[in-house]
């Protein structure tokens, strides 16, 4: 099927559109993830890092990074003809966190990217989604040259609740990213089902 058109006389399918956030610390791979999977040219709001920003942008561990997202990244992926995900990548630095409330409005769930070299950088995102009861999973972005740790050790280091999914991924790999996004949708659906069961 061609997006938005019918095929061989079939009535057009009106897709369900869902909003997913991609969050995490500075330089963790959010822009890369959105770009790896988006079927449209992603909207990016990247600016060059400057000397003026060095005191507030901690680049230790990501010294080669030369740009940063200052508003959001946006992409789209059609998982099925009737299911489309809109992806919103959040800015990672603390001075841009005020935008998260706007971006999270109406979100089904989120992927929190983590980097084992700077694991503490994703604490703020995890705390944000826990406090607002927005379903999320943690995707450990496996950077080249970064140490590998068992998932259980990472879960304990992040103090994740047992029901929060955690997976290893490569933000550059389209299939790995798709699996993470499908995981978010499934987790959010399971959470919604549990809430309905409690209230009935």
TrEMBL record:
It comes from the Bacteria. Coiled coil: none annotated. InterPro entries: Gliding_Motility_GTPase, Gpn, P-loop_NTPase. Pfam families: ATP_bind_1. Keywords: GTP-binding, Hydrolase, Nucleotide-binding. The keyword Nucleotide-binding applies. Signal peptide: none annotated. Gene3D superfamilies: P-loop containing nucleotide triphosphate hydrolases. The keyword GTP-binding applies. Belongs to the GPN-loop GTPase family. This is ATP/GTP-binding protein.
